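Researcher: Batch entry, complex prediction.
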Amino acid sequence: MKFSFEEEQLLFAEAIREMLKKFCSPEIINHFTESDSATIPELWDSLSSMGVLGMAAPATVGGLEMSDEDFVMIMEELGRAGCPEPVMEHAVLSIPLIEECNNETQYTDIIESAVSGGKRISIGLEGHYVVGADSADYLLLFQDDLLHLVASESIELQRQLSVDASRRLFSVNWESSSDTIIEHDPNKARSLMEKTQLRAEVATAAQSIGVAGRLLDMTVQYVQERNQFGKPVGVNQAIKHHLADTGKAIEFARPMVYRAAWSLSEDDNEKELAVHMGKLLASKAVDLACKTSLQCHGAIAYTLEYDLQIWLKKGLTLSSSWGDVYSQRERIADCLGL
Amino acid sequence: MDLFFDSDEKAFRDEIRSWINENKPNERWAPMDTQSGFEQHRAWERKLFEAKWSVPNWPSKYGGRDCSLIEWLLYEEEYYLSGAPGRVNTNGITLLGPTLFSWGTEEQKDRFLPKMASGDEIWAQGWSEPDSGSDLASLKTTAIRDGDHYVVNGQKTWCSRGAWADWIFCIVRTDPTSERHAGLSYLLVPGDTPGLIRRPVSRLDGEPAFAELFFDDCRVDAQNLLGDEGAGWSVAMATASSERGLNLRAPGRFLAAANRLVELYRETIERNPLLSVAIRDQVIDAYVNAQAYRYQVFQKATMLMEGGALGAEASYMKLFWSELDIDIHASALRMLSERGELIEGAPDAEDNGSWMSGYLFALAGPIYAGTNEIQRNIVAERVLGLPRK
Ligand SMILES: Cc1cc2nc3c(=O)[nH]c(=O)nc-3n(C[C@H](O)[C@H](O)[C@H](O)COP(=O)(O)OP(=O)(O)OC[C@H]3O[C@@H](n4cnc5c(N)ncnc54)[C@H](O)[C@@H]3O)c2cc1C
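Model: Structure tokens for the complex:
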């Protein structure tokens, strides 16, 4: 038993953090949401040049062959930076899925261009909205136990406005045909979907932890700067205890998210349970961080002019995407036979 | 990262598992916080010691096995899963023991550690005083040097098992003119010192486990000073970090309790399929939190084994386990419904009322080892960096 990351893994996450400080600052995020564009080209290019877009792809197509354990901290950094690009959908979920269906190397071109960032792919489960569909060249869509890869020209998109303005959500209207199917075997398609669900839960949980950490850090800083009654509001125990509880929730969720990522990488037989537990705790942690960070700031955080709102809204949406606390408890109950 | 146990770790776990299951007593003993239970539990400590299972993480020269921190965590898991008796010398082996390793002289370690490991000398913690609880540094009990002895006067309270313990590790004021943290020293006091009067006090659960200690010109050999005169606060902080970090409450006991809770849920839902799903969700949360504590501790243990140190973050752990313990027991009581309040001796009591006694004990968790309000202050000020004033 050795529960620590390798130097390499830590350095990579650190490098991503630094890159995001530059290319995914709050000013850039705010500008992106105001301009209503579908992407932040410089950010996407940096993600591409650092290998993030191909991190889960095999080396033969230019990828870094990283496992869920390898990139869990990267997902955390993306959350910490409030990254609006659909990196999870593209890099963590879509590319490995297409790769699984690439038996006859018929999709190698698409995968290669996705790894380089030239082509963008997003993904939708049947009956769910698709994040980042307007910037995607292809969508992977599960339907009737089959998996389809559909070029975006043939899909009708309808924008659904999310409370998180940086999250571009769409409902999709499309026709399946024998040409769009990339996994014909319903058993395999189902198992791919289950695996995708687990990966998405871990990656979403990791982003949630990053968001929660950012909310806490910003609040810790603010309560030292804001004075009332002649002293920083952060001297008051009511504030201290809110923040200590938030720190505790993050501190205890994080190892469970790392462990979930490790379980997926190892294909460990406790992986389902590990993943749902990690997501449950991460959702709880980010819910608490949203609540306490807003409260400890007061009215300033209740404005669009103050940057905390970026992470408040990310937290609000990530907490329930790919399964909120209630559905995670149901899944855990299933795993434990309760 | 490798979260599988390696073959040594597995072999170690199998060894303790089979030893404990073959050797644990089958009958139920009186609680260790009663005088008769105390002696039965002392005999159990000796049995553990003879098999080198009382302090496996200690060096072999003091009766241990030099096992790794991860192995010790597995040992704790197996120990509590087996349902073996509670450890009557916990305050010795988990609090004073590690403090002796850091601060004791060679003579002191040789003198105290083996007898602590064997249960021949059971220890109690004499820190709190009637007017000094959270504000420990305000304590008033004095120990004035007189030749090769200290003369101790004052009063301690809430001393767990202090009425029968063989020894008491105390914090005393060796410089009567000093204030607060300065002038304190860490003194090991024999329980049979003339002039020491010990009065048992019944706890909320009815066990006479607390003691009040009255020191009236008690002469204690100066060799029993741990650390230098005046260094008591620093020595005490080593003990306090054991109380909050992994030593006092390893995950094993909570994992075992969470497993029992899940079993109780299975039995309950079979009898009462209409049981509220809210209770099931509490059971799930308790189970998940026990796992979260386990992995948190594996991560911290790895960090320590790689040469790191545990600082003020230990307060996160104390907050977490103390709240988890209450949640586990509270959910069980909910499930037991009207039988929840039944205690040992009631004909219908589930498992002899152990959920209620466990609950009452859990209620103390947020108070002892530094109250949870104090832990939150520590986290806010020393982990997060918020201003004190
Ligand atoms: C089961 C049990 C076993 C114990 N065993 C031992 C033992 O073996 N040896 C020993 O020496 N002691 C022991 N204690 C005593 C324990 O260490 C004290 O109870 C503890 O330090 C708190 O002190 P107090 O009870 O005097 O509470 P107080 O310090 O009087 O506190 C009362 C309340 O005020 C709050 N409070 C105090 N100061 C602050 C502050 N600065 N900020 C916010 N809130 C504050 C506390 O959190 C608490 O809620 C034991 C206690 C229990 C319950």
